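4.2 Preliminary Data

To establish feasibility before requesting continued support, the project team ran the inverse folding procedure on a target of 227 residues. The structure was first converted into the token representation described in Section 3, and no sequence information of any kind was made available to the design step. The complete token record follows.
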């Protein structure tokens, strides 16, 4: 069985959990802090995620996603053009959207609000807003970026939006395609089963504000083996 050394709130770990769920593979989820020695032995850069499959060790999330795509073939669009587009979206998710979100998360996470650097937050929020128009234009349909099938691009973006929302960075109202896409993807079982607690709490808050039953959202931390 695949082993995944994992940290719930890490966006790189979450995308691998999403992809594993999407291909329907059973895996064992290990908290890297509870297995520090075996984890450190496997990763030259001391990062998570780390994947172990039948003696093979992978320590870079993009390689894990490509491996799952090569094994199961259902995580990227078929044509070379659309695959290139999916990879461009993933790059945008990490290098543009993710950078803005990361600054807000790092500033707010586990810190007394009295100590927040408001200039840093304001700059990150501006960068977040500036990242929206290009993404909003990339939609062909509302359900996903690729004609109804969820791809790795959707998964990587969903983790960035989910974590950002948990720290107060929302999709502005005028980006209707993006809002509807996130509304749909964040209600799918794969998203809910793999999401970190902080994301589920933010979703439950926004659901209760919009009248949906918050108890529908279940935490994922209790789940160590997924199928
Ligand atoms: N490029 C790496 C980045 C992984 C990464 O930066 N992981 C962070 C957590 S999000 C990490 O392991 N930090 C060290 C730590 O948390 O101890 C990948 O995609 O796998």
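Position-by-position output of the design step:
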């Amino acid at each position: 069985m695949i082993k995944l050394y994992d940290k719930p709130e890490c966006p790189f770990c979450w995308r691998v959990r999403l992809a594993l769920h999407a291909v329907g593979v059973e895996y064992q989820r290990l908290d890297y802090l509870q297995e520090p020695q075996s984890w450190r032995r496997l990763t030259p850069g001391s990062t998570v995620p780390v994947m172990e499959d039948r003696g093979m060790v992978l320590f870079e999330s993009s390689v894990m996603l490509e491996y799952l795509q090569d094994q199961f073939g259902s995580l990227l669009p078929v044509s070379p053009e659309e695959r290139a587009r999916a990879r461009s979206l993933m790059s945008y998710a990490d290098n543009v959207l993710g950078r803005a979100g990361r600054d807000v998360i790092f500033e707010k996470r586990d810190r007394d609000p009295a100590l927040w650097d408001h200039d840093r937050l304001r700059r990150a929020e501006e960068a977040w807003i500036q990242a929206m128009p290009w993404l909003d234009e990339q939609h062909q349909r509302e359900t996903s970026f690729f004609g109804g099938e969820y791809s790795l691009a959707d998964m990587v973006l969903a983790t960035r939006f989910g974590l950002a929302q948990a720290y107060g960075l929302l999709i502005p109202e005028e980006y209707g395609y993006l809002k509807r896409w996130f509304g749909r993807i964040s209600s799918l079982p794969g998203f809910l089963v793999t999401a970190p607690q902080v994301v589920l709490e933010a979703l439950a808050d926004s659901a209760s504000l919009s009248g949906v039953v918050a108890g529908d959202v279940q935490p994922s931390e209790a789940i160590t083996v997924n199928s």
